[in-house]
Amino acid sequence: MGGLDKVLEDTAVELLRRAASELRREYVEALYKAMEKCEGSIGRAQLDAILRNIELARKSSEPICQDTGIIGFIVRVGEEFPVRASLRDILVRATRRATEEIPLRPNAVDLFKGNTGDNVGLGVPIINLELVEGDELELTAFPKGGGSSNVAAHSMITPGLGLKGVKRFVIESVARAGSLGCPPYFIGVGIGGTEDHCMLLAKKALLKPFQVRNPDPNIAALEEELLQRVNELGIGVMGLGEGPTALDLHVEAAARHPATMPVGVIMSCWALRHATAKVTREGRVHLL
Amino acid sequence: MEYRLKTPIQEEAVRRLRAGDIAYLSGTLITARDEAHKKALEMHARGEKPPVNFEGNGVFHCGPIVKRVDGDWRVVAAGPTTSSRMEIFEDRFIEAFRPSLIIGKGGMGERTMRACSEYGCVYGAFTGGAALLGAQGIRRVKEVHWLEELGMPECLWVFEVEDFGPLIITIDTHGRNLTREAMDRVAAKKEAIISSLGG
Predict the structure, then answer these.
(1) How many contacts, defined by CB atoms under 8 Å, are there between A and B?
(2) How close B154 comes to chain A (CA, Å)?
(3) Taking the model in full, what pTM does it have?
(4) Which residues of B are catalytic?
(5) Over the stretch B106-132, which tens digit does the pLDDT of each residue have?
(6) Residue B8 burial (10 A CB sphere; 0-12, 13-18, 19+)
(7) Minimal Cα–Cα distance from B164 to chain A, Å?
């Protein structure tokens, strides 16, 4: 399986490069639209700087932001896909190479020894593994910067407060994030499951297709309402009150224990960076 | 108003700036984040001097990506990091080292505001994430200190910059703080939104 190992490693490096340097087209279009609509000169100056920066990154294939994040991968492994046990080693090698080649900023800090220098450390890169049907592997590189991670929020709402309690917590969390996480934001909300699982749901909500609502009409309505409400907060571009507060918001839900109502809110800065590819068992790569 | 600032920036030029002005910096810009602030202040407390002179210069809350190319440093990406983390240090830092311009993102709080008024310093917000635009304004790396000890994001990079910006002055020497003003408005709206929520 040496050949397939190498394909996976190269693919992971390429995905990290793409994630770091190319913002998805629909996000860029949304930022252009925001600039057309923005009336304030401070908001416009910042959106202009953002758009010029995106263009520079696309041309040079260099990172959009110097904070290239803690490296995370979401891997969906088909049950017939031949590579399993060596996946961690492959993604660790890819992370080291990407750090050197792209380059990425070394961000993995050991609790006792300081910066490891290569984005690899205890449990890092973070690998989230899902087993799925089929004989392909789907790999998503999802690096996450520190600025917007610092404003993530979690709460165990009193279940009796119901959905109103959930909404309140989301609005309060975004208001608290304010200017700190580089708005305009993308917002992922996870509701239900357990204390840990709702955070994972919130994280995965960030990866949902842009402005495509949840297939469940109740969740879709909640997404619409929360997106509208957080924009009414008026945080604006970089927290100076002009332009949009959030470009999109997704909710992912799971059933919960009757005594608990876990809620997670994870925000991304305007540079929501991720890239995905599918690899067949024969080693063919399809960038998505 | 739009200003072109050149280091060392004179105090009267700093005090002329008003919240909402846009500035571009040329001259010396030194990166410092959490660890560098802490270390510089610890040295100051012991009566020692840090290896760089901040006076009249810009301090940049930034952990850049810098690459060695043919023996020289090349700055690949250099955008601002979240400044509020430095709030616990900045007033003492400004008092001890007298920089003229603090550059970062997300704004800063009361302690920094007071030090800015007292010692003649302003805060310029650089657009978060605009790291390549930032790198474009950096002509060269003049020096680097504490690289081994603190690592690439945390060490002191001394840059020579030209027309670095746009920087939106959000804290001036006259007691205005645009980020705080915006966040006060957000807090008021938040209360109204929450009280109108349905179940």
Answers:
(1) 165
(2) 10
(3) 0.93
(4) 37
(5) 999 999 999 999 999 999 999 999 999
(6) middle
(7) 12
